[in-house]
Amino acid sequence: MNKVAVVILNWNGAEMLKQFLPSVISFSTIEGVEIVVADNHSSDQSLQVLQSEFPQVRVICLEENYGFAEGYNRALAQILAEYVVLLNSDVEVTPDWLQPLVSFMDSHPEVAACQPKLLSYRNKNLFEYAGAAGGYLDRFGYPYCRGRIMGTVEEDRGQYNSICSILWASGAALFIRLKDYIEAGGLDAAFFAHMEEIDLCWRLRTRGRDIVCIPQSVVYHVGAATLKESPRKTFLNFRNNLLMLYKNLPQEELNTVLAVRMLLDYVAAFKFFVSGDWGNALAVIKARMAYRKLKQDYRLKREENLRKRKVARVNERTTRFLILDYYLRGYKRFT
User: Which of 48, 81, 202, 277 is 20 to 30 A from 284 in CA distance terms?
Assistant: First the structure.
């Protein structure tokens, strides 16, 4: 059995493989590491590129595009390793990036998953939006990070170089025990993409497992390279966030949080509408309709989560109201 499998899910990313896979190969040299590319039925030259330029990389060919969540579920079902890294195809890793992660996880069996410090590939002095130095949720389900609040991204000055507990580790570079991944049920396939790693980590936290950020490991993430800003992305973010809340919220908070979110979602749709962005406004409305349609199907998943819960409420899901803090109180930084 391998120690670590670095698994890159690819869909029509031939150029990104050419650009970023060399750093993964060069800098993932500790003993017992396997590098795997799981191809989500690409129609570009991805497979030819892998065969001709990266013959040392193991390739798993999926028979259709299953999306991020189910694509990884199917790929990891074919992996035999103690740890797996779910690594985006647009991530540049740095020398010895794996060693701090492996060392910490080996000595902390209570930790299920971790992430490195994610910096922006385009501006390497800044944190990267989708992960930064570890993720949290506010009371109403809005995610934020050490180093990123709403749309404000901080400069990395070493202010978040401490190892700390977080609620969610970014799916751009998620280092996780394969056993924990499987026992928690993996990523929610119905999500397709977006919020699936937050949902998984929230499940793990409530089942008594820890999630941490280890900033001694650094990677650079392009971000938004595989699914551009679009109504489709807005739809997935809003719908999946609601499904995640329904699955994981404690019973005593469920009705209040979802009622407030309904109001806030329609405010967001109205804001898109008055700015002339009708596509994203409609995406929010469709997301709420899809959530209502799927809610009944998620009842059993919610019951399972509540049944397996060992921690009633995790500290990394804070009591703050992020929108109020950001827009009215002017809090722009995590600290």
Answer: 202
245 touches 298 (CB < 8 A) = no
* pLDDT at residue 225 in the model: 42
What's the distance, CA 107 to chain centroid?
24
Amino acid at 239: R
Window from 24-28, 36-40, 244-248, 326-330 with minimum mean pLDDT: 326-330
34 backbone dihedrals φ, ψ, rounded to 5° = -115, 135
DSSP 8-state assignment for residue 153 = E
**How long, in residues, is the chain?**
335
Q: DSSP character for 76?
A: H
As given in the structure block, the two tokens for residue 94 are 């740095």
Task: Find all residues with CB under 8 Å of 107, minimum gap 6, and list them.
Answer: none
Which spans in the chain are helix H? 14-27, 46-53, 67-76, 98-107, 178-183, 196-206, 231-248, 251-274, 278-295, 299-308, 322-323
Q: Quote the CA–CA distance of 67 and 227 in Å, as a whole number.
A: 11
Phi and psi (nearest 5°) for 291?
-60, -45
**Which one-letter DSSP state was computed for residue 85?**
E
> What one-letter code names the amino acid at 14?
A
